[in-house]
Specification:
There is one protein chain. The protein has one domain: Vaccinia Virus protein VP39 (Rossmann fold), CATH 3.40.50. Helix 1 runs parallel beside helix 4 and helix 5 (130-140) crosses helix 6. The chain is globular and about 50 Å long. It has helices spanning 3-25, 33-49, 64-71, 83-92, 130-140, 177-187, and strands at residues 54-58, 76-80, 97-100, 113-119, 141-152, 158-161, 169-172, 190-197, 209-215. Strands 3-2-1-4-5-9-8 form a seven-stranded mixed sheet, with helices on both faces. Strands 6-7 form a two-stranded antiparallel sheet. The chain is an alpha/beta fold. The mean pLDDT is 94. The relative contact order is 0.16. The longest helix is centred in the N-terminal third of the chain and has 23 residues, at 3-25. GO terms for molecular function: methyltransferase activity. Keywords: Methyltransferase, Transferase. Residues 55-145 form the Methyltransferase domain. This is Methyltransferase domain-containing protein.
Length: 218
């Protein structure tokens, strides 16, 4: 699959399901207190580092995580590949900044961000593209800046076909924390924290959830 194929498939999928997705999961963070604890801990690390750069919420979707970080006092903006997701985020949080674009090629100078968040947004990136993705995250972070990476744990992707009755499909890739840690290390990151929680049956989760926090060396 070429970059164009991968990006087009992902963009088309989320443009198609955006409104249904936002309606179904609008209270998702409130139902995940352990996930919120990770987000809050990440925000604390960014604030304690004392840098004055922004935090980029890459693959922000409807903007929920972006808004959470803003409520915690971080200067944050969201970016998403899907025009429809960005429209929902702007409509829901008009006081915040949201942009459309690809996290594989960020329109940002080197070393300008205090934090990068990829909250379940790398799960559609082909495995052979992850080194380039993590290199891009490292590039835009200031020395000492932090990265938060969330994903589902597993070895086989979940294929979602015709969600909400729409004629689209997409693979949701699951990965091993140790594999992702190795890739982050190879890109130049230093691991700060690794958290894995079990799947929550009440939330209809089918795989454990992993959260990695890594730091760009000063």
């Amino acid at each position: 699959m070429t970059d164009t194929d991968f990006l087009t498939a992902t963009r088309t999928f989320y443009d198609t399901v955006a409104e249904d997705y936002a309606a179904q999961f609008r209270d998702g963070l409130a139902k995940r207190p352990l996930d919120l604890a990770v987000l809050t801990g990440f925000a604390g690390l960014v604030a304690a580092n004392g840098a004055d750069g922004e935090v980029a919420d890459l693959g922000c979707g409807p903007g929920w995580t972006t808004a959470h970080f803003a409520a915690l006092g971080l200067p944050v903006f969201g970016l998403d590949l899907s025009e429809s997701m960005v429209a929902i985020a702007r409509r829901t949080y008009p006081q915040l900044r949201f942009e459309q674009g690809s996290m594989l090629e960020l329109d940002l100078p080197d070393g300008v961000l205090s934090g990068v968040v990829s909250f379940y947004s790398s799960i559609h990136t082909p495995t052979d593209r992850l080194p380039g993705l993590f290199a891009e995250f490292l590039r835009v972070l200031a020395p000492g800046g932090h990265l938060l990476l969330a994903f589902q744990v597993g070895d086989r992707p979940r294929h979602l076909d015709r969600p909400y009755g729409h004629p689209v499909s997409l693979d949701f890739r699951r990965r091993r924390p140790e594999t992702m840690t190795d890739l982050l290390s190879a890109a130049g990151f230093a691991l700060v924290s690794r958290t894995v929680r079990e799947a929550d049956a009440d939330l209809e989760e089918t795989a454990p959830q992993a959260f990695l926090i890594a730091r760009k060396p000063a």
